[in-house]
Design brief:
The structure is a homodimer.
Chain A: E1 12-18, E2 24-30, H1 32-41, E3 45-48, E4 53-56, E5 65-72, E6 79-85, E7 101-103, E8 110-112, H2 120-124
Parallel strand pairs in A: 1-6
Antiparallel strand pairs in A: 1-2, 3-4, 5-6, 7-8
């Protein structure tokens, strides 16, 4: 067998990494249906825990993730997908990466790194 | 509140990224105790699902992960830690990264990328 093993868990974690910069953009989950859609469409499709349905990343904002390459780990239960992040921002808060907060473990201070690429209020509206 | 929120889940996923190369090395989990030990010791300590205890990464192999910087995501339920991977290999199979298998979605072919840094049989022995 090759590829991720969905017999280990219904949902497997997926790390999205920017193919150009190497920045880690986000972590989300896929079920087998989302995985199949991703490899067939060439665009990353996650499964949303909270909404209990397929989450075609960027469907609303336009910030889709084009698949550049796919890796899976030694346990076949985690995926790493290198992507071309259309629109330049993966995070729904408008940042390039969801990991825009840096924590200083000594002081507990938090620093926002990276700038906002878009204003979430303008992209998602109030609906 | 700042930092990861362990009220969301007992175990939070943690992405370890090589601070120099930007390579994603592995994904594992922390509970709050592992998190506290990590920030106090400056070495990454995970929590092992399967062994049900703290997993001081590299305790046996010597391949510890020195914390370089810590980020958490917009939902405060995922950590990204940039590390200095001592010994050059994060994966128990001896590879630099656990994501050493690349999958071609069109053909289903799997290619091993990256070379073995150590031979697991020599490092872990038979005990």
């Amino acid at each position: 067998m090759s590829g991720p093993n969905f017999e280990k868990a219904e949902l497997l974690p997926v790390i999205a990494q920017d193919d150009e910069s190497g920045d880690v953009l986000m972590l989300a989950y896929m079920n087998e249906e989302a995985w199949q859609e991703t490899i067939q469409s060439g665009r990353v499709c996650y499964y949303s825990h909270s909404r209990q349905k397929l989450w075609r990343k960027g469907e609303e904002s336009g910030n889709v993730q084009e698949v550049k390459s796919i890796f899976y780990d030694c346990d076949a239960d985690t995926l790493l997908i290198r992507v071309n992040q259309i629109g330049g921002a993966a995070c729904h808060e408008g940042y390039r990466s969801c990991f825009f907060r840096k924590l200083d473990p000594a002081s507990g201070d938090v620093e926002v790194i990276g700038e906002r690429v878009f204003d979430p209020n303008q992209v998602y509206g109030k609906s």
